[in-house]
Predict the structure.
Amino acid sequence: MQVAAIDRLRGHAFYPSDDVLATIPSLYETENVRLDDKVLHLHYFVGGCDWYIAELDRKTGEAFGWAQMAPGCGEWGYISLPELATIQAQAFGMTLPVERDLYFTPTTARYALSRFDD
């Protein structure tokens, strides 16, 4: 399924507006910022999986951020947004695309990731 069809399934565009994308630092731009102090600009999710974006190469869609695929297994690393945009989970007979959190406000990792602390 192509991204446009998946966008129809998710009910909104995977990528935010160009104005929003322009506010996200480029890759390596915040490498001297402590991880807890990095600002997370986007949040994507499906099921129990979460991806938070701190830096972005707007040309390739390669991002740096934090992801958790299973409870207690979150880590910092690189995320391919074009690849993430095509992922679809199957649950209870439904197809669930990765969604962008439309209500997420950029915030520090310390605050945004505190909900994952057990």
The chain has a mean pLDDT of 92. The longest strand covers residues 49-56.
